[in-house]
Specification:
Layout (H helix, E strand, L loop, with lengths): L3 E10 L2 E11 L4 E5 L6 H9 L6 E6 L2 E2 L10 E4 L11 H11 L4 H14 L15 H13 L5 E5 L7 H17 L3 E6 L2 H7 L2 E6 L2 E6 L1 H6 L4 H7 L4
Parallel strand pairs: 3-8, 3-9, 6-7, 7-8
Antiparallel strand pairs: 1-2, 1-4, 4-5, 9-10
Helix pairs in contact: 2-3, 2-4, 3-4
The structure holds adenosine-5'-diphosphate and magnesium ion (MG).
């Protein structure tokens, strides 16, 4: 079970408070989108969940277990970033295998995991190529493959499609939704793009100025916005 519970998370950088007492209960296998304007704290919240940044106060529970002080590697979480950070000199195969090499996984299991991820992401015939020989969408899939092989319980995506052109972004949205259905995992997806949020999410968290404006299904937000900000941001006049 990969429920994700955020309990009263706050974060300050020096005297600047950027997250204010955020509490959210995310269900197992749910696809939740954090949406909000630039600077509202989306990446900071995601980095705190991943363990890359420490909350000033509050707790994070995964599957009912407190991971607030756990090392990032021990949280069962994988994060996919906006910039893919692939190794240009390594093949697609080795880029995907990289986290397993670091774990010193034995060869047969490593190969099985890489092949499985490549199959899901339709990269099976690209495994011997270098990242420079791939399209933008294929490179993003390699980055996702590198997350899948670790069998995380929770996937975090920080604006993974914002470097892609509009047409490709549409295709990748569909692919990520399919990926969510094919994997047994909870996903948290950050974007500043309302359309992306409305089309992909089971539930949406609207953030503004480091606070949760509303947490609900796309239809709830659209038809019953709780605040003026949500109404304007999601596009329905109040
Ligand atoms: P978003 O991802 O929604 O655009 P961020 O989480 O990146 O927003 O940033 C939220 C706020 O926190 C911004 O005002 C940003 O300037 C500030 N911030 C983020 N990281 C740091 C940091 N390491 N030091 C100081 N301020 C930061
Ligand atoms: Mg950000």
């Amino acid at each position: 079970m990969a429920t994700l519970d955020l309990m009263s998370i706050s974060k300050s950088f020096g005297s600047a408070k950027v997250l204010h007492d955020i509490s959210l209960a995310i269900n197992d296998k749910e696809f939740v989108v954090f949406v909000g304007p630039s600077g509202c704290g989306k990446s900071t919240l995601l980095r705190i969940i991943a363990g890359l940044e420490e909350a000033t106060s509050g707790q994070i529970m995964i599957g009912g277990e407190d991971v607030s002080t756990a090392h990032p590697v021990d949280r069962g979480i994988s994060m996919v970033f906006q910039s893919y950070a692939l190794y240009p000199h390594l093949s697609v195969y080795e880029n995907i295998a990289f986290p397993l090499r670091v774990q010193k996984m034995e060869k047969a299991e490593l190969d099985a995991r890489v092949q499985q991820a490549a199959g899901i992401l339709q990269l099976t015939d690209k495994l011997q190529l270098k990242p420079g020989q791939l399209s933008g969408g294929q490179r993003q899939r390699v980055a996702i493959g590198r997350s899948i092989v670790r069998n995380p319980k929770v996937f975090l995506f920080d604006e993974p499609l914002s470097n892609l052109d509009a047409a490709l972004r549409g295709d990748m949205r569909v692919e990520l939704s399919q990926l969510h259905r094919s994997l047994d995992a909870t996903m948290v997806y950050v974007t500043h793009d309302q359309i992306e949020a409305m089309t992909m999410a089971d539930r949406i968290v609207v953030l503004n100025g480091g606070r949760v404006e509303q947490f609900g299904t796309p239809m709830e937000l659209y038809h019953h916005p709780k605040t003026k900000f949500v109404a304007q941001f999601i596009g329905q006049p109040n």
